């Protein structure tokens, strides 16, 4: 079953920003990463799933039920991006309050079964020792762990986490990663909105990339990185470090190619002294070699040429830059 299934889901703010026409599927039991630069529309999308924004148009189901219905949210755990708990509460009191928000009656949240559930959840997120302290004295990382505890309290089948590790130190991030893997092992589906690409690389089975409100790619992470997916975004697979780049070099290269086989060259970086990094989609080493000879003929210095590492950061930058324009050769 798809835990999240959206079709052309759209939400804008008076016609601007937000996200538009998002069609994506999140399979059961996976960790799914939602990626994209600042302002891409990720939080808007997540807020529609969490029921905080009503879509302008489109259709969606969550946990097999139509989005927007209270039943669709019953088995959902949600950690919002910016949250703050009342300073005077203890973690146990915060969780009791969340238990009631989740539909438990006040007497149920006083029962020993619920109290032991609270203890277990605080232990799971590493907050046992702070269980009786006031939240007002918590560090940002501790607050984030408590937010995670609130999301996990009622044993959700689907957890949506909006930047769950942004305030955590490296040890805290390692612990949260282990926790998320443990949850996946128990069959919980996790939808992660994060800027921490190492976390996505290590954790996620599937991912989607939003840019300027639109979905540019989605699917199994390895397929996206290797550029073999149906919608992998025409990713580049070869890189060239060059010197002697001048403003007119693009034109010179274009006129030098004539009727050469088509390939897409993109300027990734360029500094004032003419040092550049280019990437290209090539079909084989011969084509890469041809481009090397072309650069040399055009008077450039070739410092380095080789397959692009399949890192998520490189993919992220390629995806973003594919929207900022490239020069077809
Ligand atoms: N409440 C709002 N009113 C008006 N515009 C908004 C509102 N919330 C978001 N936007 C706009 O919608 C676009 C998408 O914003 P959103 O917060 O969804 O992006 P994001 O990908 O989550 O960004 P970030 O990574 O910075 O959190 C942005 O242009 C933003 O300015």
Automatic annotation (TrEMBL):
Keywords: ATP-binding, Nucleotide-binding, Transport. It comes from the Bacteria. SMART domains: AAA. Residues 4-237 form the ABC transporter domain. One of its GO terms (molecular function) is ATP binding. InterPro entries: AAA+_ATPase (IPR003593), ABC_transporter-like_ATP-bd (IPR003439), ABC_transporter-like_CS (IPR017871), P-loop_NTPase (IPR027417). Belongs to the ABC transporter superfamily. This is ABC transporter ATP-binding protein.
